[in-house]
Amino acid sequence: MVSILIDDIIPILVIMLLGYLCGKFYYFDNDQRQGLNKLVLNIALPAALFISIVKATRLMFAQDIVLTLISIIGVVGLFMLSFYLDKLFFHRSTQQAAVCALIAGSPTIGFLGFAVLDPIYGNTVTTNLVIGIVSIVVNAITIPLGLALINRGQDITKKKAQATNTPGTKIKVEQVTGKGIHKATKKVMVTIPDGVPVTDAEARALEEKGLDREIDLARAEIANHANTNHKPMNSTLKSILNAIKQPVAAAPLLAVIFVLVGIHIPSSWAPTFDLIAKANAGVAVLAAGLALATVKFSVDREVIWNTFFRLFFTPAIIVAAAYICGMGTDPEKISMLCLATGLPPAFSGIIISSRYNIYVKEGASSVAVSTVAFAASCVFWIWLLPILAHIF
C-alpha cells in the first residue's frame, strides 16, 4: 500500500500540482494549454488505445463480454442516475443536470486512465482493454447523450417562455445574409425573452447581462454551418457522429473492429505507436493541472455529493455488479474496472459547460475537489478490494 502511494499516486499529484502552478503563473498561455490538450486527446491517447487494443484477440473479447456489458450498462446507467438525482435533489434544469452527469457521471479515462492504471497493474493487454472499453463508452455514448439532453432541456425552456409570454429585452443583433461573394452582415432588432438560451451574437449584444446567459446548443451548431445548403442533421445523431469521429473514440473503435475481423497489425509497427503513446500519461496529468488552474471553485453540498458520486458511489456499484455477474474469479480485473470508472470527472464536461455557459461554477468546483480527493479514494479502493476478493 505504501509503495503504491509513493510510487504511483504521489507522482500523479506532484505533476498535477506542477501543471496547476504553471497555469497560475501563466507559464503556458491559453493556446499552449489547448495545444497540450489536443496532443493528449487527438494524438497520444488514440495511439496508446489503438496499439494496446489491437494486441488483444477475439477469444479475449469473448471471455471479457461480461466486462464489456458491465462497462456499458454500468457507466451509462450511472450517468443517467446522476442526471435524475441532480434534478431531484438540487432542483436543476434538464440542461444543468445533463452537464452535471457529464461531470459527476463520467470518468476522465482519457486524461488519467493510463497514468493511474499502468503504474499499478502494469502495461498489459488486460489493463489496456479495460481502459479502451471504458474510453469508448465515455466518448462515444455518454458525451453525445449529454449533448442531446442539453438540447432537449433548452427546447423545454424556450417552449415555456413562448407559452407564458415571458418579458424580454430588445437588442440589435448581427445577422448574416447571402453566401459566398454575396455574403453580407446587417443588424436587426430582436426581442430576447428573459432566461432563454441565446446565440453567441445575442450574448455579445446583451453585454454584461449576456455573460450569464446559456448559449443555445442547437442554434450555435446551425450558426457554425450557416453557409451550407444541406438540411441540418438531427442534433442527437449529429452529436453521436461527431463524437465517434473524434480520434479518442475512433481509434479504440477501429482497433476493436480489427480484432473482431482478425486483422493483425505487424509487430514492427508497435514502436511507432508506442513512442508517441509514452507521452500520454505525463502530459495528460500536466494538462489536467493546467485546466484546474483556469477555474475558481468553492465547496457546497452539491459539490460534495458530486465528488462522492464520482469517486465512491460509482465504483462501488460497478464492483458489486462485477461480483454479482461472476467476475469474482479475476479480482485484479475487477480492481482495474473499479479504478477506471472511479477516476475524477471527465474534463470534456467542463469544456462543454464553459462552451454553453451551463453549470460552470458547480462543474468546475466538482472537478477540482474530486481531483484532489482522488488521492484518498484511490488508496481506499486499493486497500478495500483485496479484502473483498478474500471474502468473496
Structural write-up:
The chain has 392 residues and is mainly α. It is built from 17 helices and 2 strands. The protein has helices at residues 2-24, 30-53, 58-63, 65-90, 94-104, 109-121, 125-163, 200-205, 217-224, 235-245, 247-261, 270-277, 280-293, 301-324, 331-341, 347-356, 360-391, and strands at residues 168-177, 184-193. Helix 4 packs parallel to helix 7 (125-163), helix 5 (94-104) packs antiparallel against helix 7 and helix 7 runs parallel beside helix 15. The longest helix has 39 residues, at 125-163. It is globular, with a radius of gyration of 22 Å. The protein starts with a helix and ends with a helix.
Outline the secondary-structure elements.
Layout: H1 2-24, H2 30-53, H3 58-63, H4 65-90, H5 94-104, H6 109-121, H7 125-163, E1 168-177, E2 184-193, H8 200-205, H9 217-224, H10 235-245, H11 247-261, H12 270-277, H13 280-293, H14 301-324, H15 331-341, H16 347-356, H17 360-391
Helix pairs in contact: 1-6, 1-13, 1-17, 2-7, 2-11, 2-12, 2-13, 4-5, 4-7, 4-14, 5-7, 5-16, 5-17, 6-7, 6-13, 6-15, 7-10, 7-11, 7-15, 14-15, 14-17, 15-17, 16-17
